[in-house]
Design brief:
By secondary structure, the chain is mainly alpha-helical. The protein has a domain at 138-215. 30% of the residues lie in helices and 4% in strands. The protein contains 6 helices and 2 strands, in the order ααββαααα. It has helices at 35-38, 44-47, 99-104, 109-135, 169-182, 196-204, and strands spanning 53-56, 83-86. A two-stranded antiparallel sheet has the order 1-2. The longest helix has 27 residues, at 109-135. The chain is elongated and about 115 Å long.
Length: 215
C-alpha cells in the first residue's frame, strides 16, 4: 500500500515508484510425516513389477501338553492362515504449466508445484496409514481392560475416553508399554505417534526431569 500524500502532492506509486515481486518464496510449513518411520517396505520388491496381493506366511503356535509315562502321544499338525497384503490404494496429482508461462516466469513453476504436491501426498498417505492402524488395533490392546494376560490396564474406550493430564501421562505411556509386553511384542523398534497436546503434557509432567528430550 502506497504511503499517503498531502493534498496537491503527486502520488508516484505505480508510475515512477514500481511494485516489486520478490524472487524468494515465503516459507510454507507442512505437517510432519511419520508413516515412513513406523512402517517397513520388506515386501515392496515382491510386488514392484507385478501383482496386487501378497500372501505373507505366519508361524503357527505349537501346543505344549502334559506328559505321563506310557501314554500315547497326540500328534499335532501346526497350521496358521497367511496374512493378506492387498495392494488396493492409489493416489495421484496432475498439474500443468503452459510452456510459454514456464519460459517467461522468473520462478520454477513446475518444480514448485511438484514439491508441494509431494508434501501433500505424504500427508494424505499419513492420514490413511494412521486411520488403518487405529482400526486394526488388537482387542487386547485397547479399552478399559487392556492387557492380553491381565486385563488390568484402563486405556479408555470410544464412549469413555481416558482422561490424560500432566500428572498421569507417564503412567499411561508405561501402561501402553506393558500392554505390548503382554503381547510379547519385542522392545526394539517400538514407537508412539503423539500429537502436540500429548507431548505438551509430557513436557509439563513433574516426573519428567528433562522435558527437553521430547521433540
Amino acid at each position: 500500500m502506497a504511503i499517503g500524500t498531502a493534498a496537491g502532492h503527486p502520488q508516484y506509486s505505480g508510475n515512477f515508484i514500481p511494485e516489486i515481486w520478490t524472487g524468494q518464496l515465503n516459507e510454507k510449513f507442512y505437517t510432519a510425516s511419520v508413516f515412513n518411520d513406523i512402517t517397513n517396505n520388506k515386501f515392496e520388491g515382491e510386488i514392484k513389477n507385478q501383482g496386487d496381493k501378497v500372501y505373507i506366511r505366519t508361524i503357527p503356535d505349537v501346543t505344549i501338553k502334559d506328559y505321563v509315562k506310557g501314554q500315547i502321544l497326540e500328534i499335532e499338525h501346526p497350521d496358521s492362515p497367511p496374512i493378506e497384503l492387498l495392494i488396493d490404494k492409489a493416489h495421484y496429482f496432475n498439474v500443468s504449466v503452459d510452456d510459454i508461462d514456464a519460459y517467461q516466469s522468473d520462478l520454477g513453476l513446475m518444480e514448485m508445484w511438484s514439491k508441494d504436491a509431494t508434501e501433500q501426498m505424504r500427508n494424505h498417505i499419513d492420514s490413511g496409514v494412521l486411520q488403518n492402524v487405529y482400526a486394526d488395533v488388537d482387542s487386547n490392546n485397547q479399552g478399559d481392560d487392556a492387557g492380553k494376560k491381565s486385563g488390568a490396564y484402563d486405556l479408555g474406550t470410544a464412549t469413555s475416553a481416558k482422561e490424560i493430564n500432566k500428572n498421569n501421562i507417564l503412567d499411561v505411556i508405561v501402561d501402553m508399554g506393558t500392554v505390548l509386553d503382554e503381547q510379547d511384542v519385542p522392545a526394539d523398534n517400538r514407537w508412539i505417534v503423539a500429537p502436540a497436546w500429548f507431548t505438551n503434557m509430557i513436557k509439563k509432567s513433574d516426573s519428567c526431569e528433562s522435558p527437553a528430550y521430547v521433540n
